[in-house]
């Protein structure tokens, strides 16, 4: 959760959601010589700063320059007029495995997805997939279809289902949970994703890369999603909260089959690994970090503990807390010094423009020395009801944070312990929070997977994490001289 940031309203969010190409997660393809139009360029220029703001900002330096170079080189293969000059490629400071594009030649990948890759061909594959969406004008087709079907009102419900993971939660409240999240995208149709995969494979082949890279990077993404689910104690079939990569496992074999017999052998594995060495992995302390069941933000000087059996996902705007007994998030809003008014305003925001929502009662308390106010509202949802709770804390006269949670009506609130765990942290605690980074090492004679995995900066799942990070199956062994990735604490 970043320190502060301008929020995108629901109307702007809906528009951006329709334009944003969420993937890695048909229609007729325009002529290869069709350039990016002025209208498309203007659209992309409008969305671009919003996306940078929403996904942690664009990274700079040699690693970002390398990603940009590979992205623009693969964009040239699309045949779009002035592709190298027309495309903008951004490496985003986000801990979510994600890649997407918007009209006008703007393509993005998160640093977390890059850390999952194992060679330059895989980076080119992801970039090629996104370029394929741009070349096929998939975003524009989706916008046109949405306008024809008038699905603007449906959009919030679709996105809410992704965030809340339970259709029994009322849309009235769930729309508000979207604000401040990274859930700005709808997945494309299966045919559009397949078409983008095929175009990406074509671009890989034209550039001389190994076309199998499309299948291998999708396989790594599927393995990572499955591992994350197991480590967090959730169903592996449930999509990652902030991911817009629908069912990568179902596309792996098709991509590998489509690449069979095609020319191209270049992977540039060692070059790629040397260029991403040192890249930050997981949460950036500037956005707060998740350590087991604890969230700690060294700059905001706050910490809380999620309930047992719940898992958290951090974004630049909010921290999501998810479990079978309810859903919630921690975020902030503008604060004028009146905590009771602040809580009422959050209920109003959760209800939306057309649904009045207010707490039945407001209670004042103190939590670990912090002034706090909380309220609850019971909301009808068809034949059932849900309880909405807002629990806010004052950290300064001009700064407050709040939890917003949804739970089944009348049940014991599983978030009670979390509400009471919010606290300030000391300067000493803040100073102990350091990021994890990639450390590319060369395998020495006698090194084993289990031995190297013990150097991973995690208390659990070390070998599983090491295998997925390096694309290693259960039967794979290491060879002396081979380069592999570790995740270590930054020194």
TrEMBL record:
GO cellular component terms attached to this protein's record: membrane
InterPro entries in the cross-refs: LysM, LysM_dom_sf, Mito/Outer_Membr_Metalloprot, Peptidase_M48
A Pfam family hit: Peptidase_M48
GO molecular function terms listed in the Swiss-Prot or TrEMBL record: metal ion binding; metalloendopeptidase activity
UniProt key word Ion transport: no
Requisite cofactors: Zn(2+)
Domain LysM: 439-486
Transmembrane segments: none
Keywords assigned: Hydrolase, Metal-binding, Metalloprotease, Protease, Signal, Zinc
Protein name as it appears in the record: Peptidase M48 Ste24p
Database matches in PROSITE patterns: LYSM, PROKAR_LIPOPROTEIN
Any Gene Ontology biological process: proteolysis involved in protein catabolic process
Signal sequence range: 1-19
Record organism: Erythrobacter longus
Origin organism lineage: Bacteria, Pseudomonadati, Pseudomonadota, Alphaproteobacteria, Sphingomonadales
């Amino acid at each position: 959760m970043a320190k502060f940031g301008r929020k995108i309203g629901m109307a702007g969010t809906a528009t951006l959601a329709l334009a944003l190409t969420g993937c890695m997660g048909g229609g007729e393809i325009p002529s290869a010589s069709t350039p990016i139009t002025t209208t498309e360029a203007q659209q992309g220029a409008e969305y671009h700063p919003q996306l940078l703001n929403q996904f942690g900002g664009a990274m700079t330096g040699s690693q970002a320059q390398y990603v940009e170079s590979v992205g623009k080189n693969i964009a040239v293969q699309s045949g779009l007029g002035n592709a190298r000059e027309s495309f903008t490629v951004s490496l985003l400071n986000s801990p979510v495995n994600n890649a997407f594009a918007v009209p006008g030649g703007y393509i993005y990948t998160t640093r977390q997805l890059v850390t999952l890759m194992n060679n330059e061909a895989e980076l080119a594959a992801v970039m090629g997939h996104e370029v394929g969406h741009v070349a096929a004008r998939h975003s524009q087709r989706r916008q046109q279809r949405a306008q024809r079907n008038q699905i603007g009102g449906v959009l919030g419900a679709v996105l809410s289902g992704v965030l809340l993971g339970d259709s029994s939660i009322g849309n009235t409240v769930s729309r508000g949970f979207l604000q401040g999240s990274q859930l700005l995208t709808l997945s494309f149709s299966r045919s559009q994703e397949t078409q983008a995969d095929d175009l990406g494979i074509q671009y890989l082949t034209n550039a001389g890369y190994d076309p199998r890279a499309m299948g291998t990077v999708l396989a790594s993404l599927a393995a990572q999603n499955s591992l994350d689910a197991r480590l967090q104690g959730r169903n592996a079939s449930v999509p990652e909260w902030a991911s817009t990569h629908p069912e990568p496992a179902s596309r792996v074999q098709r991509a590998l089959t489509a690449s069979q017999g095609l020319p191209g052998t270049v992977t540039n594995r060692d070059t790629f690994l040397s260029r991403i060495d040192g890249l930050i992995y997981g949460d950036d302390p500037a956005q707060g970090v998740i350590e087991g069941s604890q969230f700690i933000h060294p700059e905001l000087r706050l910490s809380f503990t999620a309930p047992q059996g719940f898992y958290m996902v951090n974004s630049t705007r909010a921290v999501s807390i998810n479990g079978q007994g309810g859903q919630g998030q921690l975020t902030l809003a503008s604060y004028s010094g009146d905590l009771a008014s602040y809580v009422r305003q959050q209920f109003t925001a959760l209800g939306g423009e057309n649904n009045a929502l207010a707490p039945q009662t407001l209670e004042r308390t103190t939590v670990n020395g912090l002034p706090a106010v909380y309220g609850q509202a019971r909301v009808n949802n068809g034949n059932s009801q849900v309880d909405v709770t807002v629990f806010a804390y004052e950290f300064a006269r001009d700064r407050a944070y709040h939890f917003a949670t949804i739970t089944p009506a009348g049940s014991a609130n599983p978030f009670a312990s979390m509400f009471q765990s919010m606290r300030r942290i000391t300067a000493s605690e803040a100073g102990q929070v350091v990021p994890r980074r990639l450390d590319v090492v060369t395998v020495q004679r006698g090194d084993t997977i289990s031995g190297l995995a013990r150097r991973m900066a995690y208390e659990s799942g070390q070998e599983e994490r090491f295998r997925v990070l390096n694309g290693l199956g259960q039967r794979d062994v290491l060879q002396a001289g081979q380069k592999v990735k570790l995740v270590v604490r930054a020194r």
